[in-house]
Amino acid sequence: MKNISFRNDVLPLKNELYRLALRITLSPVEAEDIVQETLIKVWNRRESWSQIDSIEAFSLKICRNLALDILKRKDRQNLSIEQGDNNEPAAPSNPQEKTIQKDRIQLVRKLIDSLPEKQRSCIQLRDFEGKSYKEVAQALDISEEQVKVNIFRARQAIKQKYQKIEEYGL
């Protein structure tokens, strides 16, 4: 029997849940609300924690479902993510290179934001959160093979769009 602690096992997932919700909704305010709602739902299910294989996957699944519900309710198109420095490589010292690198990072973020939701979620959990294929599959309630296909397609789409823009400009 697992001994799961809300303080030690669930609360530390807050930032990860936020990033997933933000990647899906593209709204910092909605992402914060979703994290709060997720934590409440996980807490309310505390009697059944002993039957859960992974509290992290369980929490991520609730967070994703809540974010998708909001998207369906609002039925809106993808907006650009307003996000600060997150996973950016070390900046070069040359001001021109800094500007070019910043533009490239913004372009990649826009390309990720333009992906279908499932591909965005897979990329977020796998590449930004460092989850294993199995963990991503559990969190998104799909097979590991589907995770790999979604990530492959997402990376290919980003690569093709990026190369096209780099070669021909916007």
Short note summarizing the structure:
By secondary structure, this protein is mainly alpha-helical. The chain has helices at residues 6-10, 14-25, 28-44, 55-74, 95-113, 117-128, 133-140, 144-168.
Question: Characteristics of this structure?
Answer:
170 residues; mainly alpha; 69% helix
Q: What does this protein look like?
A:
By secondary structure, the chain is mainly alpha-helical. Helix content is 69%, strand content 0%. Helix 2 runs parallel beside helix 4 and helix 4 packs across helix 7.
Task: Describe how the helices and strands are arranged.
Elements: H1 6-10, H2 14-25, H3 28-44, H4 55-74, H5 95-113, H6 117-128, H7 133-140, H8 144-168
**Percent helix among the residues?**
55-70%
Please count the helical segments. Answer: 8
Low-confidence stretches: 76-88
Amino-to-carboxy terminus distance: 56 Å
Structural class: mainly alpha
Largest sheet: none
What is the residue-mean pLDDT, rounded to a whole number? 83
Shape: elongated
- SSE order in H/E notation? HHHHHHHH
Radius of gyration (Å): 17 Å
Number of strands: 0
Approximate strand percentage: under 5%
Quaternary structure annotation? single chain
